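Bit of a strange request maybe. I'm writing a small parser for structure token strings and I need a real example to test against, not something I typed by hand. Could someone generate the tokens for this chain?
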Amino acid sequence: MMEFRVVWFIVSVFSFARLTSSVLFDEDFRRWMSQHNRVYDTEEYHHRLQIFTENKRMIDHHNAGNHSYTMSLNQFSDMTFEEFRKFFLLTVPQNCSATKGNHISRTGPHPDFVDWRKKGNFVTPVKNQGHCGSCWAFSTTGCLEAVTAIATGKLIPLSEQQLIDCATNFKNYGCFGGLPSRAFEYIKYNKGLMSEEDYPYKGFGIVCHFEPGRAAASVLDVVNITSYDENAMVETVASLNPVTFSFVATAEFMHYKDGVYTSTQCKNTPDMVNHAVLAVGYGIEENGTPYWIVKNSWGTAWGKDGYFWIERGKNMCGLATCSSYPLPAV
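Reply from user aminoacidic:
Good idea to test on real output. This should exercise your parser:
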């Protein structure tokens, strides 16, 4: 009889703990829904609550450990990584190993810290690609905006939508993926890219309606940095301008919040890249860890006001396999 009571007590405590945990996550989820303006029917609510709960447990477990970066709930916290990958990353395989490096190395020394946001009006505000795998287009425009502003003194937001609609002949696939190097080639041979104001973003593909007479920026040539030459990326950012790069984003990156991102789960080869971004600078942490300062395209509510830091010097997640920048035609 005594054994039965002990077992019953243990089961009851365990069940109570699970119920209490479920209630707490339910309260967290309702607050999150209110914050992000989410509305679900009953069936979808329970499905999304389960996903949210798993994501929050992962975040809490990570933040309780000794890591170089923190994670947090964000606008993606009711999504599985499979869903997230479908809507926000490059779903068509992007192998950039065929690109040749034509970057000319420059001798140092280089400063320990560079941030083009602090050098002048050279970087546009963080944008939001929405439910479209068009990160490659935002990486492209961000870089061309910067190099054009550095050359002319005029910072003009450029059109990602034109790239989505019009650059398909250069092996880009609209909301399903592409590469900045190929997008630069399109702009070069197309004789220009319109402004965001004249060709606004929709977040889905429509019929190309480029007007050459309204081009706001052009590309004279495309510079591809030799794969795995991260030092050349540093040289470029230090002495010339921001650079685009592609890398492998994993489930843990989806909830990045602060600190220097590093991963043992990601691949580092050019055939695995699934996200394109813009390196606007670099620095060194107090503990000696070097990092890149990177502009993302998931809005300012994600990460460090739309930016993230990622460890530099180790080809982290393949970031040095596929980097490029344009020479502006001005």
